[in-house]
Design goal:
Elements lengths: L4 E4 L5 E5 L1 H9 L8 E3 L7 E2 L10
Antiparallel strand pairs: 1-2, 1-3, 3-4
Length: 58
């Protein structure tokens, strides 16, 4: 089963759902930065992108 991600910008507005590949594209295109947050079902809270495995794509 694919992961379904949501992201939250500094204005606290939430966006999604996105697949892994869509999330990576948003980071590579500069739409998301290390200071933005991501979340998926199973996480206890929002995770800062710079503190996640996705920081590799920053």
């Amino acid at each position: 089963m694919n992961k379904v991600w949501y992201y939250m910008k500094q204005d606290r507005q939430k966006y999604g759902p996105y697949t892994d590949s869509e999330l990576v594209s948003l980071i590579r295109e500069g739409i998301l930065s290390g200071s933005d947050y991501i979340w998926m079902t199973g996480l206890t809270g929002w995770l800062k992108i710079s503190n996640s495995i996705y920081s590799f794509y920053l």
